Amino acid sequence: MGRANHKVGAPAVMHVYNAGGFVVYGPVRFIMRQDRAAMAQPSWKSQVVQALGKLPAVKSADPRKVGVEIHAMLREYILKGILLPGTVLSQVTVAKDLGVSRTPVREAIRMLKEEGLVTAAPNFRAQVTAVDFDDLEALYANRILLESLAISVTIRKNTAADLAELDMVLKDLGSRESLASIRTWMERHRAFHLKLYRHAGAATLAIIQSNMEKSERYQYLRWQKRAPRDQSDGGAEHRAIVEACQDRDIRAGIERLSMHLARTALETLSEIAPDREPANVRNALHMAKAGAAAFQLASAISLHRRRA
Fold first, then answer.
1. Is 137 found in the same domain as 215?
2. Are 22 and 31 in contact (CB under 8 A)?
3. pTM across the whole model
4. Same domain membership, residue 299 and residue 218
5. CATH code, domain carrying 231
6. Which residues pair with 23 in a beta bridge?
């Protein structure tokens, strides 16, 4: 993906590719915002076939599970940027393309709507939701706060084996194999972050993973056709976070992680709406850093009392 230099407040002109290699030229806000998505996207089937080489068949033989399978299929295509914002998901067309009845497709689209991945007004066809500034800002603000908590819990509980595995996952993330494929890199990137929070508890990890998958959609739209190796800042930040974990330095871990997430959020948000200020992301960052400092102070006081 390429970007031309532009003045602050002016929409950046970019080439955005979907997984199938389609190229869309124009200001980012025209590509990202639903109100600008009057640009007709190719059919959902053609986008999937272009990306995967074929339209995968529904495998479930149990009618009760067909809707769940279709939901999982469409959800993956949306989150991985295969289906672009504004893509129409007609119940009739999707059912015909997959060789199923409309009932499981209707259920799948209902679940996608509940997740905010499609919009569907009554009597209108569903469309893949556009990238929205407010949604993305809220998503990253939540990620900064929750993942800062998760890493603070995990740093205290990490074993030597945990730290060795974390280091191995980081090396895999920077491997030639990862850097050759955006999909491989994104999957390993998610695995790396989840290892940072492994002791945060199953319920917390489930929320974090869901948030990560949703934010990955924005990154797929940004980074398709751009090699992950271009993210040199991210690689250095990952290493710094791991070093904080190895040193069992909770304050450094929180600060480095929250800065890493905030940088990604601010870069993405500036492409969507360069004239808007992402105050919630900055506030979440300040809260995370203040919490890290308060935790360090409380730990020092506790240690002093034990020694007294």
1. yes
2. no
3. 0.77
4. yes
5. 1.20.120.530
6. 17
Q: What is the pLDDT of residue 2?
A: 38
> How many structural domains is the chain composed of?
2
What is the identity of the amino acid at 201? G
Contact 108, 67 (CB under 8 A): yes
Residue ending a domain, among 110, 128, 146, is 128
CA dihedral for 229, 9, 261, 184, sign (positive or negative)? negative
* 113 and 230 housed in the same domain: no
Residues 153 and 293 in one domain: yes
- Shared domain check, 112 and 157: no
Q: How far apart are CA 52 and CA 172, in angstroms?
A: 24
Say what the pLDDT of residue 219 is.
84
Mean pLDDT by 10 residues, the chain (308 residues): 35 34 33 46 94 93 92 94 93 95 95 92 83 92 98 97 97 89 89 98 96 89 59 80 97 97 94 92 96 82 70
Burial classification of residue 99, based on how many CB atoms lie within 10 Å of its CB (0-12 exposed, 13-18 middle, 19 or more buried): exposed
Round to whole Å and give the CA distance between 61 and 38: 38
Say how many CA atoms lie within 13 Å of 158 toward its Cβ. 29
Sole residue written with tokens 């506790």? 302
Domain of 246, in residue numbers: 133-307
Alpha carbon distance 119, 124 (integer Å): 9
CA distances from 211 to 199, 205, 293 (A): 18, 10, 26
223-243: string of b/e by CB count within 10 Å (b at 16+)? bbeeebeebeeeeebbebbbe
